[in-house]
Amino acid sequence: ELTTVRVQDPRVQNEGSWNSYVDYKIFLHTNSKAFTAKTSCVRRRYREFVWLRRQLQRNAGLVPVPELPGKSTFFVGSTDEFIEKRRQGLQQFLEKVVQNVVLLSDSRLHLFLQSQLSVPEIEACVQGQGPQTVTEAILHYAMSNCGWAQEEESRP
What we know:
alpha+beta, globular, PX Domain, SNX11 protein, membrane, protein transport, cytoplasm
């Protein structure tokens, strides 16, 4: 079984405003039976990764959860350099997470990687309080082809 996860295309949202942030495209391609959709592409921001790591840690028991790149407020160097270092750190985090069988069994991880649901929507879905099951939410996103079409268009 092979799972490729790439964190790419960092984009600054609300640039120049006090609430600007960077989000990243997460592209997943797999033949693993653990995943509902074999390909997906979503955008997530750093604080959603922080939430995911906290949830994985809460549910994983004694299994160590990989570290995230630091949230540096005093970064020396260019913003682009910081964003690229963070992108690499987020990719390493996800690569380690998807290789871990225990972490892979967490529905929150699957919704994080394979749906565009917000954090509160993911929580509601996992607790059975959303309009769809976890599988339905992932399949709905996969069928809408949101991420996949974008991925195809951006290839040379």
